[in-house]
Amino acid sequence: MHFQKLRLVGFKSFLDPVEVQIEDGITGVVGPNGCGKSNVVEALKWVMGETSAKQMRGGEMDDVIFGGTDDRPARNIAEVALVLDNSDRDAPSPFNDSTEIEVIRRIERGSGSDYKINGKSVRARDVQLLFADMATGAHSTAMVNQGRVGALIGAKPTQRRGLLEEAAGIKGLHSRRHEAELRLRGAETNLERLDDVIIALEGQFQGLKRQARQAARYRRLGGHIRRHEAMQLHLRWQEVTAALEKAREGLTKAEAEVATRTGHAAEASRLQAEIAANLPDLRQAEAEAAAELQRLLVAQRELEAEEGRIVEALAAVDQRLNQIGIDIAREQSLGEDAEAALRRMDDEVAEITAAREGEEERRETARVALEEIGTSLRAKESELGELTQTVAAAEANRTALLNRRDELARRHDNLTERVESLQREREELMAEVGEDTALEQTAKAVPEAEAEVESARRTSEEAEATRGAAEQTEADRRSRLQDAQSARDRLSAEENALADLLKEDEADLFPPLVDALEVTPGYEKALGAALDDDLTAPIDTAAPVHWTILPALASPAPLPDGMRPLSDFVKGPPALARRLAAIGVIHNASAGSGLHEALREGQRLVSLDGALWRWDGFTVTSGAQTTAATRLSQRNRLTEIRGQLQAVEKNYETARQFHIDSQETAKEAAAQERKARFDLQTAYDTLANARKAYTALADATAGTRSRLESLGELLERVRVDLTETQEQRVAIEASVAQLTDPVEARQRIATLHQEIEAGRTTERERRSAHDRIANEAQQRGARLKVIANERTSWENRVGGARGRIEELETRRASEEEQKSRLAARPAEIGTQRIALLDTLEGSEIKRNAAADRLAEMENGLAEADATLRRAEATAGDAREERVRAQAHVEQAISDCDAVKERIAERLESKPETILADAEIDPEEELPPRDVVEVKLERLVRERDSMGPVNLRAEQELIELEEQITTMQTEREDLLAAIARLRQGISALNKEGRERLLAAFDQVNQHFETLFVRLFGGGHAHLALTEADDPLEAGLEIMASPPGKKLQILSLLSGGEQALTALALLFAVFLTNPAPICVLDEVDAPLDDANVERFCNLLDEITKASKTRFMVVTHHRLTMAKMDRLFGVTMGERGVSQLVSVDLRTAEAIRDSA
Predict the structure, then answer these.
(1) Which residues of 303-335 are buried (b: 16+ CB within 10 A; e: fewer)?
(2) Tell me, what's the pLDDT at 297?
(3) What kind and span of H or E run contains 100?
(4) 550 forms bridges with which residues in the sheet?
(5) pLDDT by residue (tens digit) across 284-336?
(6) How far apart are CA 69 and CA 464, in angstroms?
């Protein structure tokens, strides 16, 4: 596929639609700085899937949208389209159905980017993979943007390794290896977590086994506690029902007493109500008299306050009148001052008018005198200039001829010495060329070093293969060791768990009988079904429940059909002999029903799968798990595990020794590989040194011969220059002899200088007089304008003063009138005060009489209230007694309900049936309640002393065992996955090393060739440094420009560094060619000669490959080598435009013309 054209709309500074044709050959992009050339390159990277806004020189991706200018608004959408030629139909299958592929990337402000290929929406990843398959993309080596060369020069060797990885195409291997390493770390982390969980669960497993034993004991105590709770609650029910009957009798008596005392209280309440009915009228009369008295008192206080306000108002009026008089006097004084100023201005205007008479005549006279002296001065200055120019030309000509004569004399001497020096140097070089034989010897050393490199490479490959096989063997043995370790750990964990579970509890004073039994494997369920909870009883006679040793029966009843007793398969204490002898064992549960009827009194029949048939008809089907059977199975399993553990330990030790041996072998193989790599690197260095020596000698010899030829040509040119110099000396001597001295002109110049100086003095005096007359006239005119403005201001002040005086007179009259009104008001207030005092005395007498009547009636009401309170208190005591009786009844009912509720809650029964539900005979004589409570408390204390009990322990134990088994399986799967991941990472590393070394050789060959081409000689090579592993090594650039020693890139000059970096970039490009190569101002640090070589190299690569080049440049030589040019301009500030020129077509038109 080939790139055809690039279209931009609204991208950065390209506001209007622009199309860039990308054709065969080299396309140049030129223009001034800042006009948008690099935006074309960034558009190409952007459409190929660039996701970093920083690479686009922006803060966010929306910055690629046209941001607007002073005259153009900002856009909200940017779009870039890239058209590819797919005539060869080598595109990926999803896009290979047309001869053209159009990739479009469109971004809308605030909404992100959309990608389309041939009109179909795709992901950014699809676009990136499309260009990656073409060996190009936004981050390809072929996209050399500004700063890429500088970044390569300043990069560390390990950073430069990325160029080799891209040339080798192992970027994908790195990502796959990184993904595998992440998965490996995740699997190892999961394995550690799983081991922690298994250890924690095994601890829980041991705890659950102890909890199962506790649960059985807890259930037995629960039965005894239920029986005694039933007796306690029954006795309590009898007590509370008797208390309820007694409380109801007391309530009946209290209600009769309440009725009697309530009648007395009602009579006292009637008398109190009659008195209280008369009080409101008396209170209303007393309130009205008091209100009238208060109103009169308020009026009296208001008159006194008004009298004080009048006195204050009179004082304020006097103060304002005084201030008005002062203001009138001030305004009269201001008016008089303004009138005096107006008179002074009139006098000054008359004086200025008299002075202006004859002013124009004096100014004109001064101007004419000034012009006359100026004309005379200009004539003399012109004559002086012409004479000065003539004398200066003659002097300059004389000085130039003398200087030229001296210069030619020096040049003649120098050329003579140069000819002699060149002749001597030429003779020495001719002698040196005839004696040089070291070049042939150095040439023989290069093939020998190449043979050493080939031998070292074969040895390195063999060592690497040996190391890979040793690592594979070590991985296999490590896997077997991990399997053996897993089996050992699993058995050890199970052994420890069973041992801890079966270990006797030190806190248990009476260990159960089951711990003293030995059972034949397979008979655990039979023993558990036969004895069940009886196995938990101890044989210690100090225990409240225990087994007692009894002698064997004299004539025990035989088991039916000669059945073997359980004692044949169980070994234990003698206390269990009678019980085991009476228990028969059958192997098949189906035969048990037929033998059930044949059992004698006290005999039992059990099967191996746990079925039980008892002589009295009690039957247990098979499959019922018992705690004893489980414990016995665990003990047998512990014995079995301990036997297996010895074989597993032996297998683990063998696998561990094998793994140690394989590790040693792998270490030796790795050491051999490192030595082989070191030998290979040494051979490479030897080869490089041989090539360096050969190149240096060849360059020196070629330089000597070239220098010899150059000396011949130079000697001939110097002799020609010597002849020309002698001829020029003769001509100069003749010109010097013809020169004359201008004495009269110099005398006239001195006279003119004196006359001009006197005229300039006169001119200054006349100009000063003229300027003085003009300034005086100007000052008089300005003063008249100022006087006019000031006169207007003073006239305004006179008018303002008169208006303010009139206003102040009006205010003074108003204040005088207000003062007269206030002076008459005190007499009116005195008359009103006398009338108010008479009315106030009568109102006070009326109010006192109403208050006395109200006090008498309130005293009578207080006596009636006291009588009512005593009656109500007596009735209240009776009612309180009734309430207490009711409380006793309610308490008795509550006690009955509480007992009933407790019976329902604790025993799920009723008071009437509690004894029957607890299997207690109603006719049985029950002990006293305190005795029952003491025994119940002892049982509860015994149960509580057990602590928390998990009643689901047996079920949880089974579930936990299944969970541990599942996790052990998952652990084995994780170990296998870790081994596979390690093997895969090793394979990826091996493939990466092989491809990287192959790419290194190709890039190095191209680099050596391109370096010589770009520098016109010298030599250079690449070297892997800093690590033995190529995948971790750095890439160092060793270069020796013509005439200089071999050194690293950072020690070269700036131009040499840039040219060397370009050689490396082109070497990588030739190793893995791309359909397009973009070079953004890479020729900026190069001089003209190096730019010429750079352009020639571009031209050759273009002709030898199908790659199309796009070059952004400012250099005229680079522009001249382009097949076509696109000029980027900014006719309008902030908006880029594109202009194209096809140079091939232009040349064809020129040639045809």
Answers:
(1) eeeeeeeeeeebeebeeeeeebeeebeebeeeb
(2) 74
(3) strand 100-108
(4) none
(5) 777 777 777 777 777 777 777 777 777 777 777 788 778 877 777 777 777 77
(6) 64
Distance CA 1130, CA 14 (A): 10
Token representation of residue 824: 């008459």
Which of 207, 195, 197, 194 has its CA nearest to residue 957? 207
CA neighbor of 573 nearest in space, from 603, 548, 541, 543: 548
- 1034's enclosing H/E stretch is strand 1034-1040
Give how far Cα 531 sits from Cα of 223, 577, 628, Å.
19, 13, 8
Residues contacting residue 812 through CB under 8 Å, at least 6 positions apart? 321, 324, 325, 328
Instruction: Give the C-alpha distances (Å, rounded to integers) separating 706 from 249, 441, 698, 700, 710.
Output: 147, 22, 12, 10, 6
- Given a contact cutoff of 8 angstroms between Cβ atoms, the answer to whether 66 and 77 are in contact is no
Position 502 scores a pLDDT of 60
Asked if 227 and 918 touch (Cβ cutoff 8 Å), the reply is yes
Tell me if residue 160 falls in helix, strand or coil: helix
| pLDDT tens track for 233-284 | 777 777 778 887 887 787 777 777 777 777 777 777 777 677 777 777 777 7
User: 202 with 964: CB under 8 angstroms?
Assistant: yes
Tokens read off for 758: 């006197």
Where are the strands (E) in 833-884, listed by range? none
What is the CA 69 to chain-centroid distance, rounded?
34
| Spans in the chain with pLDDT lower than 50 | 435, 505-508
| Contact predicate 1124/25, CB 8 Å | yes
Which amino acid does the sequence have at 789? N
Q: Are 569 and 585 in contact (CB under 8 A)?
A: yes
Q: How far apart are CA 746 and CA 752, in angstroms?
A: 10
Place of tokens 């050329």: 415
Cα separation of 996 and 169, whole Å?
8
Helix/strand/coil for 686: helix
Instruction: Give the whole-angstrom CA distance, residue 200 versus residue 194.
Output: 10
The SS3 call for residue 548 is coil
Query: Which element (helix H / strand E) includes 276?
Result: helix 171-355
- Per the listing, tokens 């098949």 go with 588
Contact yes or no for 229/937 (Cβ under 8 A): no
CA triple 14-17-21, angle to 5 deg: 95
Q: How far is the C-alpha of 269 from the C-alpha of 279, rounded, in Å? A: 16
* Neighbour-count burial for 1034-1070, b at 16+ CB within 10 Å, e otherwise: bbbbbbbbeeeebeebeebeeebbbbbbbbbbbbbbb
Beta strands 2-9 and 77-85, pairing class:
antiparallel
**pTM of structure:** 0.40
Instruction: Check residue 500 and give its pLDDT.
Output: 64
Report residue 1132 as tokens. Answer: 């309008």
Number of Cβ within 10 Å of residue 584's Cβ equals 26
